[in-house]
Write a structure and sequence with these properties.
The structure is a single chain. The chain is about 55% helix and about 5% strand. The protein is mainly α. The longest helix is centred in the middle third of the chain and has 23 residues. The N and C termini lie far apart (about 35 Å).
């Protein structure tokens, strides 16, 4: 029997407050986008087996690294890169879309990486849909713009293709910068040193 991978949680509850307190960059987006971002994370968290935000892992296998930290690192690095793009390339980016993309790029990870005892493993859903796709489904259902949905859907390094917007480029480099920090913190080889 197949179940839905997530359920939308729009209720006003303690999870909303915790998500609002955690996420860096919510003050950079419109109130409507902020509400959607918080709803997306609350929905993912409430649909996951993780009791606390702090329990959500960045990845499976090996040492634990908090997804909370990775998301904020990506968002801060992405906002910095957007400022450089505006200054160096004369390419101003839509912060409402960009910050939503940065904050939400890994919104499906609480559903994909779980604990079995002390081990961090992949869920059944991970074996059914690639990383990014479930997050994009959730974002589409919540009414995010196509550009946000498509960048989240295709941002994973192993995706068969990637979006070609400036926001997608900024996410890629911010994500790899933060992911390599996470890998080093976990004692694993950073993406930069891996052979493809």
């Amino acid at each position: 029997m197949t179940t839905e991978p997530y359920r939308i949680d729009r209720s006003s509850n303690s999870r909303r407050k915790q998500v609002e307190d955690w996420l860096w960059g919510l003050d950079l987006v419109s109130p409507a986008t902020r509400d959607l971002i918080v709803t997306a994370w609350v929905s993912s968290w409430a649909s996951s087996p993780h009791a606390r935000l702090e329990d959500m892992p960045f990845t499976h296998g090996g040492a634990f690294y908090p997804l909370m930290q990775h998301v904020n690192e990506v968002t801060r690095a992405g906002v910095d890169l957007a400022r450089r793009a505006a200054a160096d390339w004369s390419t101003p980016l839509d912060l409402d879309k960009l910050v939503a993309i940065l904050i939400l790029h890994d919104v499906d990870k609480p559903l994909l990486y779980i604990r079995e005892g002390e081990a961090l493993v992949t869920s059944q859903l991970y074996k059914e849909l690639p990383h990014g796709v479930v997050g994009a489904m959730l974002l589409k259902e919540l009414g995010f713009p196509h550009e946000v949905v498509s960048v989240v859907a295709t941002h994973a390094t192993n995706a068969p293709f990637h979006a070609s917007t400036h926001e997608a480029y900024v996410l890629h480099y911010a994500d790899m910068f933060a992911a390599d920090h996470a890998m080093l913190a976990m004692g694993r080889q950073p993406f930069y040193q891996r052979k493809h």
